Amino acid sequence: MLARKMAPAGLALALAVAGTPAAHAEFRPTKTLELVVHSGPGGGNDILGRALIAAIEDAKLSPVRIQINNKVGGGGASAAAYLAEKKGDPNVIGVFTSVWVTNPLAQAEANVGIRELTPISMLVLEPAVIVVRADSPYKTMKDLIEGAKANPGKLKQSGGSVLARDAVVRQVLMSSTGARWAFISFPSGGERISALLGGHVDMMVIEPAEAGELIRSGKLRALAQVTDERLEQFKEIPTLKEAGIDVPTVPQPRGILGPPGMPADAVAYYEELLAKAAKSPGWQKFVRDNLLQSVVLKSKETGAFLADYESQMRAILTQAGVKLVR
C-alpha cells in the first residue's frame, strides 16, 4: 500500500545526515561548465537553472562561467541521454526533475534511467495547485470530480509530458475517484495556461508561482493544493486531503545530476558549490518567490531519495494502469 505522504522514506534519513561535511574537493574547473536542462528557454528547468547560475555568479562561487545547454525532447530523455554520453566528464551537470524518473519506466525510447547517472544534490521540492477558470461551474474538487464522472472523457486537462507530475496527479486522482478526463499535452507552460484561459481545456495542475497572480487577478480559481499542508500564501485553498480526496501527494523534485562515472572529487566540488549557492541571498529569494521548499541534500542522500522516489513512482504508475517497460 502506498504511503499517504509522498515524501519518499529515504528523505527523512537524508535530511538527518545532510549536514555531514563534504570531503575535501581536489577538482577545480578550469573551463566553462555546462548545465544541461531539458526544457526550452522559459521552461521550468531552464528558469531554475538560470536562477542557480545567477546565484552562483552573484556570490562569486565559481572560478569559471557556467552556461545553460537546452537539450529539449522526449520529456527529459534527450537531456538524460546527452548527460550519459558525457561519461566521466567533470565539466557537465544536469538539472533533473520527476520526468527523468518516470519516462524511463514507461517509454522504451527513454533508455537512460535515473540510477545510471551520478547523483550530486537535491535542491527543492515543488508544490502545485489544481485550477480552473474563474467562470468555471466547478467551485470545489467535489464539483470537478462529479462533473467528470457525469461526462467521462469530456473534461480536459492541459499539461506537459504524459509522465510529468501533472499527468501523474491526474492518474492518481482518477484511480482514487473513478472519474475520467482527457489530458492534452502542450510544449510550454505558457501554452498550457493559454489553453485554460481560452476555454480549450477545463483544468490544470500548475506551480503556485505561475498560478498566484492569475488567481489574485480573478482569472483562475484554485480548487486544491497538491501539498501535505497549506502554503502560507494560499491559506484559503484546501489540500487534496482537506477537499475529501485522500491520495498520495506527488512531489516534484528538482536537483543536480552528473554523467555516469563522475570522479569523486568532482562530485565533492559540486556538493560544496551547491551547498554554498543554496545559502546565497539570490537563491533563497528565488526559492521564496517561487514558493518552493528548500531540501538541499548531498550526493549519497540524493541517490537514496531518487531510488525511493523511483520505487514509489513505479507503484503509482502501476496502480494507475500505466504499462511499464522497465
Describe the structure.
There is one protein chain. By secondary structure, the protein is α/β, with parallel strands linked by helices. It folds into two domains: 9-126 and 251-319, 3-Layer(aba) Sandwich (D-Maltodextrin-Binding Protein, domain 2); 129-234, Periplasmic binding protein-like II (D-Maltodextrin-Binding Protein, domain 2), CATH 3.40.190. Helix content is 39%, strand content 18%. It is built from eleven helices and eleven strands. The strands form two sheets. It has a six-stranded mixed β-sheet with strand order 2-1-3-10-4-11, sandwiched between helices. Helix 6 links the parallel strand 6 and strand 7 (182-185). The protein starts with 8 loop residues before the first helix and ends in a 7-residue tail after the last helix.
- Arithmetic mean of pLDDT: 90
Shape: globular
User: Fraction of residues in helices?
Assistant: 25-40%
Tally of contiguous helical segments = 11
Strand order of the largest sheet: 2-1-3-10-4-11
Low-pLDDT sequence parts = 1-6, 16-24
The Rg value, from CA coordinates, equals 19 Å
CATH topology of the largest domain: D-Maltodextrin-Binding Protein, domain 2
CATH architecture of the largest domain: 3-Layer(aba) Sandwich
